[in-house]
Structure formats: C-alpha cells, structure tokens
Write a structure and sequence with these properties.
alpha+beta; 21% helix; 4 helices
Length: 138
C-alpha cells in the first residue's frame, strides 16, 4: 500500500532519466534499433518493439506515441520477414522528432498531461492530506 501511494505521488524531478549515451560504449547504436513493430524470442513469445515510446533515451524530445494496439498484429512468419526487412519497418527520421540536445527533459506540449491520464493512471485515489499532483497541469 505504501509503495503504491508513493508511486502515485511521483513527480517529474523524482525520475532519473538514463540516456543511451551513458552506455553506448557497451552497445554501439545501430539503425536496427529504430525497428518498430513486432519481435519474437520464440514462436510463443511475441512482443511489440516501439522505439518511439523511448525517444528521450536517444536524446530526442518526447512525443505522445501511438497506442501499442495501433501496431498491426503479425503472425510469426510475417514477424521474421518484417525484421529481416527492417528498413521498411524502421521508424523514419521525421518520426524521431526534434533533437533534445542538452535539454533532455524537454517534451512536446501536451505530453505530461497525456502521460498522467493515459500512460500512468493513478493506482489508488489520493489519500486525505496528500499534496496535489502538479503533473496534471501543463
């Protein structure tokens, strides 16, 4: 109960954003990282891979991403083919958005409101005496 309440009260400044830059010596950036669609570990484990949901980690301004269910579901043979031909399923440069530069905290207008309403709904209602959550206001 305590942890859920704390998570609901998390503020933007409480999050430690870890950029890809901090570990690119370990794994160099490859264009295949921009692949956007379905990947699979085996026939039974199929997952969406949506780099547009983590643009901030690649030093781009965070935008409101498409909903995960907007990614057309594919069967395993189609997933293999799409991944092999990843250039057709790669997030194109215009979709990367604006580079964030040194201001990695930047987000597109409306993102914080979307995040609090859609991506991070409250787990529990606020407790009596809780401070208001300013993230609800742009």
């Amino acid at each position: 109960m305590t942890y859920r309440s704390l998570l609901d009260r998390i503020q933007f400044d409480d999050v430690c954003w870890r950029l890809y830059e901090e570990h690119k010596e370990i794994q160099t950036f490859e264009e295949v990282f921009w692949y956007s669609g379905w990947i699979m570990c085996d026939v039974h484990r199929v997952y969406r891979h949506l780099p547009e949901r983590v643009l901030r980690q690649y030093r781009y301004v965070k935008t409101i991403p498409r909903h995960p269910t907007d990614v057309v579901e594919l069967q395993p043979p189609q997933i293999v083919q799409a991944f092999l031909d990843f250039n057709t399923c790669t997030l194109k440069e215009p979709d990367w958005g604006e580079p964030a530069g040194e201001e990695t905290w930047r987000v597109r207008e409306g993102y914080v409101l979307w995040y609090t309403e859609v991506s991070h709904p409250q787990i529990l209602p606020p407790l009596p005496g809780d401070l208001p959550r300013p993230a609800n206001e742009e």
